[in-house]
Write a structure and sequence with these properties.
The protein is mainly α. Helix content is 75%, strand content 0%. The protein binds aspartic acid.
Length: 410
């Protein structure tokens, strides 16, 4: 059930998104002056991420009671991530083959990417699971090594018996306090979201400039967005048939998180609100506390789909027809690239190097899609966050805890 407070926030959020677009469209560059309000919201959210992830993963894993259950929880989560990401890339490939958005696009404005793109390989992905200094990892907000550390730490704690209990109670308290703070920041979300959308649209030069950017890459943007919508519809059916939840109600609980994902383009920054939304929806503790932090870092359906469309777009623009075999390489590498992408703005653009190199396309091709990437980043991040939230519901259901059970109480 959606409570009255949540409903009020939902309406405020919808108003904020509409007003943000309106103000950015009309006000143009003048709206950059409200950017600081958006930054305030974003920074406040980011401030909670590290303590929240630490407390949430430790209590989530230890809350399983028996470490052996971690295998099942982890197994189902990874199977969910892998399947949905694979389906997302397949939808991306389908869209790029149907729309053929790159055909006839002029290469004239092809430019080298604006920032240095690192060379990321599969071994780098595996190495990114660990970090020599866990405090440094926290300071750099590298979530993956923190999560790996916390899983191992929680497993160790649960083997210590009574002595472990005391430490665990500390993290329980930390988690509850963090979630309280999330609840407070949430009420600032409408102002933050309004400011983020209005100032970003303003930075892009206002409504007319935005539509001009969009028109230049219209077919490409349509291919990405239609793919994302199809994938979102697929996730809704997973929610309905596998997690057995009402889609409308679940979306109602998650609205603040999804709109924040759209306005921040960062699944990590949105994580505190995703956790709050999924908690409201009554997803059991271990599922949401374990699945969401991990999902925000490695499960990125929207990014995977987008990378497939973008790479095919670049190939088509260069007059190269990728064979079926090469498209299968895109399928595998785009999945890896999405796993490797951090939950921060435009991370997908950086890890796309893996896919381009695998099929032998020049990295400069990325220059072709830069103009509109800030907008598509927001769209794919929203789907990334939705995919994580649906994953928590699925894992909650398949690990035998139903909504509203004792397990869902904090
Ligand atoms: N911005 C995305 C996210 O945070 C990652 C990406 O660039 O695709 O989920």
């Amino acid at each position: 059930m959606i409570r009255a407070g949540e409903r009020l926030l939902l309406w405020l959020m919808i108003a904020a998104v509409v007003a943000g677009f309106g103000a950015g469209y009309v006000g143009g560059e003048a709206m950059v002056s409200v950017k600081w309000l958006g930054d305030l919201f974003l920074t406040a959210l980011k401030m909670l991420i590290v303590p929240l992830v630490v407390a949430s993963v430790i209590t989530g894993v230890a809350g399983l009671g028996d470490v052996r259950k971690l295998g099942r929880l982890g197994g189902i989560s990874v199977a969910y991530y892998a399947t949905t990401t694979f389906i997302a890339v397949s939808i991306g490939l389908l869209m790029a083959n149907l729309w053929r958005p790159g055909v006839g696009v002029p290469l004239g404005d092809m430019q080298a990417p604006s920032r240095a793109l690192g060379d990321v390989g599969i071994t780098d992905l595996i190495l990114s699971l660990v970090h020599p200094n866990i405090i440094a990892a926290a300071a750099e907000m590298k979530l993956l090594p923190i999560i790996v550390f916390c899983i191992a730490f929680a497993a160790a704690l649960s083997m210590l018996g009574e002595r472990g209990e005391t430490v665990l109670r500390f993290f329980e308290g930390l988690n509850e306090a963090m979630m309280k703070m999330v609840g407070w920041i949430m009420w600032f979300a409408p102002i933050g979201v309004f400011a983020l959308i209005a100032s970003k649209l303003g930075e892009a030069g206002g409504g007319d400039a935005f539509f001009a950017q969009l028109a230049g890459l219209a077919k490409y943007a349509l291919a990405v967005i239609s793919g994302l919508l199809i994938h979102a519809a697929f996730l809704c059916s997973v929610l309905l048939f596998i997690a057995r939840r009402s889609v409308a109600e679940y979306l109602g609980h998650l609205a603040t998180a999804l709109m924040t994902a759209f306005s921040t383009a960062s699944s990590s920054a949105t994580l505190p609100l995703t956790m709050e939304g999924v908690k409201m929806a009554g997803v059991p503790k271990p599922a949401r506390r374990f699945v969401l932090p991990l999902g925000a870092t490695i499960n990125m359906d929207g990014t995977a789909l987008y990378e497939a469309v973008a790479v095919l777009f670049i190939a088509q623009a260069m007059g190269i027809d990728l064979t079926f075999g090469q498209q299968m390489i895109v399928l595998v590498t785009a999945t890896m690239a999405a796993i490797g992408a951090a939950g921060i703005p435009e991370a997908g653009l950086v890890t796309m190097v893996i896919v381009l190199e695998a099929v032998g396309l020049p990295l400069e091709g990325i220059g072709l899609i830069l103009a509109i990437d800030w907008f598509l980043d927001r769209c794919r991040t929203t789907v990334n966050v939705y995919g994580d939230a649906v994953g928590a519901a699925v894992v909650g259901r398949l690990t035998g805890n139903n909504a509203g059970s004792e397990g869902s109480r904090d």
